[in-house]
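Open question from group meeting: does this chain pack into something compact, or does most of it stay loose? Before anyone orders reagents, we agreed to write out a predicted structure and look at it together. Recording both the input and the output here so the notebook holds the full record.
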Amino acid sequence: MRGFKLHCRTIHALVIHPALNVEEMVESLPLPAYVCARSTRKLVATNQLFRRVMGYTAEELAELRLDDFRAPEEITLLMESLRRLGGGTVQQRCRTKDGRILRVRVRYQDINLFQNETVVRDARFVVLTNVRAS
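C-alpha cells returned:
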C-alpha cells in the first residue's frame, strides 16, 4: 500500500517529519517493525528485518493479516489489544512462515496516516524487541 504519509511528530522518541513516507520510515528502523490497520488487521508497511524474522517476502505479507502470524491461542488477545487505543508494550507469541513460535516483546503506538488527502486514523506502528524462539 503505497502513498501513505505519517501524521505525527514523535513515535517512541523518534522525531518524524510529517510528510515522511511510511514505507521509508519503517524500512529505516534498526529493529523489526511494521504498520498495520487496526480495523482490517492488514499490514500497511513492513521492514526487511521483520520480513527476515518472520520468513515472508513483502508480497506475501501484503496478502496476510495479523492473525495469520499470531499463535492460534493468542487471537483473542490480539483482537482485544487492537480495540485499545494508545500505545504500550506487550509480550506476544508469533508464528513464522515455517511454523516456529517466537516470543517477542512488542512496542506499539497508534498513529494517523494520510492517504490521498484522507486521514487513516486506525493505524498502529509496531516494533518487535527481544525476539526469542519458544
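Observations to bring back to the group:
Strands lie at 4-6, 10-11, 14-15, 33-37, 43-46, 87-95, 101-115, 118-133.
The two ends are 32 Å apart (CA to CA).
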